[in-house]
Amino acid sequence: QVQLVESGGGLVQAGGSLRLSCAAAGRTFSRSAMGWFRQAPGKERESLATISRSGLGTYYADSVKGRFNISRDNAKNTVYLQMNSLKPEDTAIYYCAAVSRTGGYDYWGQGTQVTVSS
Question: Which of 31, 46, 82, 86 sits in a 20 to 30 Å window from 15, CA-based?
Fold first, then answer.
């Protein structure tokens, strides 16, 4: 089992920045690839960024490429999402998730709200 807790969400003006954190407990954090997702009202959940267990491999969705950066600190059992140049369309609940032994994202946090005002 892995317990995930996101933090760092809030209200920001367009063009601003936020850094989300996801603290993990339980199964050894460094064994899990991690990802950030978001879901806006009335929309499907969207995968934003993923990071390998070592942190050396990353992937970004086109919608956030060049604006968002995913990183992790295995010593602190934490994964981060640095979000820059935020747009109103980035408004959503943001979730972090961990890959389990099955290879799927089976562990999820409770989410943190990000609201970008125009």
Answer: 46
